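User: Hi! I'm working on a homework problem where we have to compare a predicted structure to a textbook description. Could you give me the structure for the chain below?
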Amino acid sequence: MNHTTRFRTTSVPGLIALLISLPAAAHDPIFGVGPHVLFKNGMEVALELEAESADSDNEQALAVDLAWGITGDWAAGLTLPYVFGDEADGRGDIALYSKYRFWRQDSLGLQESAAVFAKWIPDSGDSAVSKQADDLILGLAYGYEGRKRYRWASLRYRFNGENDAGIDRGDRVLLDFVAGWRPDPRGYREPDTVWLLELNGEYGKQARLGGARLPDSGGTEWFLSPGIFWTERNFAIKAGVQIPVLERLRGTQLASDYRATIDFEWHL
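Assistant: Happy to help. Predicted structure tokens:
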């Protein structure tokens, strides 16, 4: 049964006006998570490039992401990464994920929606780059998409598993607030640009070994993350960079210098 709630226009002219005034394509944040899902039987293929640096310790990743719209409100997919690091290269842990949009309300030039999602990241990569544990992420996302302005918020909880060394790696909480602005509203067949600014927070619990807390683990980081979302019909480019603005890490840990990503997406 479909529990999604929708506002229905009461006239054909009203419906036409709604379709004309809606954004050219649905959007999601770059580093946070939004409620957007694919249309029924839709396919998304994405190539994702990521880079991060922590105290000059650099790592890059190249991933292929495949998603499928099971229904108009439910999508699932998988991510296949390959990691390049200063210490080692190798096939990263795959990720299997699903998202269900349980609420949606449309009005003239505006769409609001909310979704729940889950991601399972099993220990499946090469030993040199794998985290050597099974992780699970559960979350909730809200989105407000207008003709010129956007807002998103998401909350995620990451259950980090125990690795091969017997270390309980400590769970993490991720919180995201995002604003978007479209300077020049366009039609569906025209190129479209949305500028994004995200505030991404991460809180990590201390890791444990044999029940004892490890002093050099856990803490809080906040990032200010500008980005851009450019689309032309069924093709999109997303790019952004996370800049640390607050770091309170326990003990001696590598502090983040930056994180950057660029994605190329095709909707089929």
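For your comparison, note the following. The longest helix spans residues 12-21. The chain has one helix and 16 strands. Good luck with the assignment!
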